[in-house]
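Write out this protein's structure.
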Amino acid sequence: MMSPKQISEDRGSPNFRHTPLQIIHILGNFFRIWSVYSMYHYFTQTGASSVLFIFCCLVPSSLLFLLLQKPWKGRPLSNSQVYPSVVNGAITAIYFILWVKGLKSCGPLRAIMAEYSGAVLGVLSAVLYGRRGHVWKKVGGLIAMLAALYLLSQGWAMATLSPFYILDNLDIEVQTKEALGMTEMVVPILAGILSALRRVIARRVSLKNQLKRRLNAVTIASATCFLFPVAMWDLIIGSTSGSSVELPFSAWAFLSTIFFGIILIFYVDSIAEERLHMVFSSPRHLMVAGGCIIIMETLYKMDFSLPGFVICSSVLGFGIYESTALDRSRKDSFQKPNPSNGIIEDELQMSSLPT
């Protein structure tokens, strides 16, 4: 039998303390991916404008962020913090446009997996700032990521196009029958790189967690402002060309995107980064997203190949692992065995450029 002292020591261990946070991270990503699938089915059923849809979701999201964080209260924000956040808002607006268009053309699975292409910033940091001995690991990781994205574009994760079609159950509702190719994957890949860039800028500008949340409200509000003329132009061009510009309302598609896809996921990723030291483009994050994708593909009865998806996600995870090798070694070399607080870990986490 375990003594009370041993039980208290187990409960005081980092793994036991982080278990609730890990559950929150898994549930947050599950609901976010659920919102992505609901958004995709909304587009396929209605043919609505992607720019107008994301703009209508950003407007209430920016208002809620502003009401929750109140960036105008407390210590005034300096110009060196506000100006980069506004620029980051423009990058965020472009990211949303590219990502939603990639979702419509490539489907939810490939759009979500392409978000992890932001790990290529790790290769760039190794070339510019890293040691030469680790550059080849970064380049090898980049090649593995490109190979995984190429396999995804060729339909390896689809039952109708996967080389493992014999192992898959083809008695499903097939929604996509043609391979896309890397040309169509360029849009979601660029969106993934911009997503990683906006996270890097947010880390560089705000070193404190509370300041990061205040500046995120400024970023989302500026992204909404930048997206406004694009949405209006899309509305005007659509009306003059005679095509349908109506935006059919679907409560679940809009509400899930607002609350799960924009608001909740920000706080969940912030908790994972601050407390679990897990950045977005990391193998651990990819593993959580992969499990959620498998559940959603099964529930929505998509054209899905489990063996092909496992191979693609494994190759992509290996590429991300190699691309972040330098940052892990740098963190381990500076980290003390039993730090009294999290200052050292937080500083090292913020100092890493990639993802």
